């Protein structure tokens, strides 16, 4: 082929984009022993036996209406636990980590009520927890397009018209996530059925409810319309009294708790299992009432296998209300598949 004349148009476009994000957070919290108390009760501070003796000695023969100062100091055991966490973080990150700890916390109380539980009854251990989250991601995208069009005439009289498009694309993504939790605070993660087929959503409204069955009520976020807790009214009083009548708050493994009732071992909770007719859905708005049976809700069968689906639930101020941990499906009587999820509620 010999080219006599030609008219060629060549063009190209190129795009490149990269994005790097790094986020980390460290949360330390404890729950006061009298949290969730009823209205009208006075603040009470429980002191150790040794502190009681010291306080009693200082108050012998003297009564004072003045405010008193109660000093709390972190125990050596708790300091040791935080130091262990600090060492772990430094090894993971490869850099020095600083954790500031207050040496003392002083509370002024108008009234100090001493409860002497005796030597035989040990004071309940305070709930504490430390949570560290680290997220790092890098994405890189590049695209190039090449276009060619033209007309060519050869010496032997041929005319060639052509158009050529070439696209080249590549994408690279790398992500690193670390979540460390330390403490004696149990995971509070009930199972929730999403009746509208979507995912769990939480309201900013709170309800006082004894989610971890320790006899004290905590403030937890309520479920938005379209979702409900899976419940078992164990004492058949027509209400959900605490987290022990939900699936998950007691053990931290809601799906495993439910699987214990799979009589025929088919990986489903269905009409072939005795518990199916006893299971109910609780909207979580109030303890008294609000229960409907699975049959009335149109639930046909709940699948027991689940997969990890970590997703944080934030409020309008971007404050964490809870975390979706795992997800599975359930089937309605009409054959539609919808979701059931295990969520960690922040109490």
TrEMBL record:
Name the record gives this protein: VCBS repeat-containing protein
Highest rank taxon of the organism: Bacteria
Organism (species): Halanaerobacter jeridensis
PANTHER family to which the protein is assigned, alphabetical: FRPA/C-RELATED PROTEIN, FRPA_C-RELATED PROTEIN
Region feature Disordered, mapped onto this chain: 27-68
Regions of compositional bias (Basic residues) in chain numbering: 29-38
